Amino acid sequence: MANHISAKKRSRQNKVRNTVNSQYLSKFRTTLNKYKASLEAKNEEEIQKSFSTINSILAKGLKKGVFKKQNISRKLSSLSKQISKK
User: Fold this and answer.
1) In total, how many domains does the chain have?
2) What residue numbers bound the domain in which 49 lies?
3) Going by fewer Cβ within 10 Å, which terminus of the chain is more open, N or C?
4) How far apart are CA 63 and CA 57, in angstroms?
5) How many CA atoms lie within 13 A of 8 on its CB side?
6) Nearest in space to 18 (alpha carbons), one of 7, 26, 30
7) What is the DSSP letter of 4?
8) Average pLDDT of the residues of the chain
9) Predicted TM-score of the model (pTM)
10) What pLDDT band is residue 7 in, cutting at 50, 70 and 90?
11) Can you tell me the mean pLDDT for 26-40?
């Protein structure tokens, strides 16, 4: 356990950041699963909708510092290739 005031504050901040980051990751994974399900079902409307939602979630995560820019680019590129294959 932290003894200094600044270390205690840092511990509190880390807990809050961990919660926020895990919410973004969870939201991303849920949407990614919906995207993959719509790819399997070949539902064009649903595919575009989930891809747009994924893009939005990743952009917001980038703004908050949850995801790195290169990681987002790689993911979106991979997902858009899957769309063009189907």
Assistant:
1) 1
2) 5-85
3) N
4) 10
5) 3
6) 26
7) S
8) 92
9) 0.81
10) very high
11) 94
